[in-house]
Design goal:
alpha/beta, Amidase signature (AS) enzymes, eleven-stranded mixed sheet, 12 helices
């Protein structure tokens, strides 16, 4: 895709899709422009451009420098096409935003369905072909959730691979930067561009995408969580998950139905406690000043962190470290762990219960346990809504996650399927 094509599609479809909060016309380019066209979640600083963070009042009205990952994209010849919608302060899995509006999931032009959050606009932009790839942040699933419900690839690295400098935080203990793209190879190559040490939060890398993409996964042993170990799962999601496992076996991998020593959803509550506790400490002044113009559900989630004492946070960190040691030791016997990305497909926005967060029930574990993960499309429900297969890897083993994701993609039958956008003209 070139910049002109991207801008033409944005002008045509985004008035209804609302993936973007700001379009760069002309686009931002470095000295060369031979790389992919990339969109940036509006939680990342771009020099001179307000960082909205999903709110009516910008987090930074005029950043003085790019986020480091943005600098790296430009240095690598990527074209930056605009900034995408986010759930306010990245705190939500549905993709809703009552402060500035929510994007429209492109798989249903008749009903406004959840785009997934918090990197909602990034997923919509990629799914609708408005860019080649997009950056997102992932604290409890915020790259993988919108990728799954919008039918694209969402790649979340483990911590320490990608710089967080210039990315506004939700929970520093959990935050990661990830990539959304139409295919695994593009996601992996963008991850390679933005990865590597920064002298601060990033201590690993850079990631070798080409080596990972060439890896032969035949003979790999994968654990797959049985349906009765997943909690409540939509029947269509369950069907597509089991079909995906059968297809994956065709790639030459061995898959065994195994219940991990700790169910994925057991990470849900402690991960949420860390988000609320750390998030409140970071954003309480903003909430106290501007709460009246913020999304009320976001305010309510942050205010829950007010009751989390320093002592309770310290306890959760200790419990998390112990849980990581246990889970990592178990996972060492496997090359990856499979589950659905989300237990339900995208519901209509009118049906959403903001007091619940089912879309993140199976994704938060990757952040809490610090595991790399990827969501890869694995089919459509009878209503024509996408479902994702989640592959979690061993600590710091992004290479295996990418290799396995690419191997599944090759046998998935998805073949770059995209939504029909005629209803969005």
């Amino acid at each position: 895709m070139n910049a002109d094509d991207a801008l033409a599609r944005i002008r045509r479809y985004d008035p209804r899709l609302k993936a973007f909060v700001r379009v760069f016309d002309p686009p931002l380019m470095g000295e060369t422009a031979d790389g992919p066209v990339v969109a940036i979640k509006d939680l990342f600083d771009v020099e001179g451009v307000p960082t909205g963070g999903g709110g009516q009042i910008p987090l930074d009205p005029r950043p003085v420098r790019h986020a480091l990952v943005v600098e790296r994209l430009l240095e690598a010849g990527c074209t930056l096409i605009g900034k995408t919608h986010t759930v306010e302060l990245a705190y939500g899995g549905w993709g809703t935003n009552r402060a500035v509006g929510a994007p429209w999931n492109p798989w249903d032009a008749a009903t406004h369905r959840a785009p997934g959050g918090s990197s909602s606009g990034s997923a919509v932009a990629v799914a609708a072909g408005l860019c080649d790839a997009a950056l997102g942040s992932d604290t409890g699933g915020s790259v993988r959730i919108p990728a799954a419900v919008c039918g694209v690839v969402g790649l979340k690295p483990g911590r320490g691979l990608v710089s967080l400098t210039g990315v506004h935080p939700l929970a520093p203990a959990l935050d990661t930067v990830g990539v959304l793209a139409r295919d695994v190879a593009t996601a992996a190559r963008v991850l390679a561009i933005i990865s590597g040490p920064d002298g601060a939060t990033a201590t690993r890398g850079p990631f070798d995408a080409e080596s990972a993409l060439k890896t032969d996964v035949r003979g790999s042993r994968l654990a797959a969580i049985p349906l009765d170990g997943l909690g409540e799962v939509d029947p269509e999601v369950a069907r597509l998950y089991l079909e995906a496992l059968d297809r994956f076996r065709a790639a030459g991998v061995t898959i065994e139905m195994v219940q991990p020593p700790q169910a994925l959803e057991e990470s849900f509550t402690p991960n949420g406690l860390l988000m609320a506790g750390e998030g409140w400490r970071i954003w309480k002044d903003r909430i106290q000043r501007h709460g009246e113009v913020m999304d009320p559900w976001i305010v309510r989630r942050f205010e829950a962190g007010r009751a989390v004492s320093d002592e309770r946070l310290a306890e959760v960190h200790l419990q998390r470290a112990a849980g990581q040691r246990m889970f990592h030791a178990w996972l060492a016997d496997w090359d990856g762990l499979l589950s659905p990305s989300c237990p339900i497909p995208a519901p209509p926005l009118a049906d959403i219960d903001e007091t619940t967060s089912p879309l993140s029930r199976l994704t938060r574990a990757a952040n809490y346990l610090d595991l790399p993960g990827i969501s890869v499309p694995c089919g459509l429900t009878d209503e024509g809504l996408p479902v994702g297969l989640q592959v979690l890897g061993r600590p710091c083993d992004e290479a295996a996650v990418v290799a396995l994701g690419a191997a599944y993609e090759a046998v998935s039958g998805w073949n770059g399927r995209s939504p029909d956008l005629t209803g969005f003209d």
